[in-house]
Write a structure and sequence with these properties.
By secondary structure, this protein is mostly helical. It has 9 helices and no strands.
């Protein structure tokens, strides 16, 4: 899986989402297409897995010495910038996560749970579930805007912070 996800990123850098195929990724990874399809049911599934792995391996914000707002802003910025330096990967993630593939749906649930947990931890014990959901909606909307080309992910991360600050303060 590691070789396939790395090969997926390499193919995305060269051909973007439209040119990505599981077969091309398998070839780049040096495995047969049947092996690749054992792990990934579609290119959307592959790209969602790339994002999930980056999210899962990204450090959790160390909130020591930060107030609640600063902790939440740090969480949102870190997640928004996970793929900011790779525009082709960023655009592919937006496309992939909007797909209807059941394997993507499963990963969307895992991604959502991870983001939810990080926001809840940043807000602290007894956080308002409606506030967490509002921040999740804000994050999802910001990434959708970036994926639609309404600014770079770095720009959107700044706008995300400004909007979250309005909500939190």
């Amino acid at each position: 899986m590691d070789r396939l996800t790395q090969a997926g990123v390499e193919v995305l850098r060269e051909q973007e989402f439209a040119g990505l195929t599981v077969r091309a990724v398998a070839s780049r990874a040096g495995v047969g297409p049947a092996t690749a399809y054992t792990y990934f049911s579609s290119k959307e599934h592959l790209v969602a897995e790339i994002f999930w792995r980056r999210l899962q391996s990204s450090p959790v914000v160390d909130g020591d010495g930060l107030d609640r707002t600063a902790r939440v802003l740090a969480v949102l910025r870190n997640i928004a910038l996970l793929i900011a330096d790779e525009p082709a990967v960023s655009a592919a993630v937006t496309n992939a996560l909007l797909g209807a593939d059941p394997d993507v749906e499963h990963l969307r649930g895992r991604i959502g749970a991870e983001i939810h947990g990080r926001l809840a931890a940043a807000l602290g014990p007894g956080s308002d579930p409606d506030l967490i959901e509002t921040l999740e909606l804000l994050y999802a909307g910001a990434l959708l805007r970036a994926g639609m080309g309404y600014g770079t992910y770095a720009h959107i991360a700044g706008r995300l912070e400004a909007s979250a600050r309005l909500i939190l303060e």
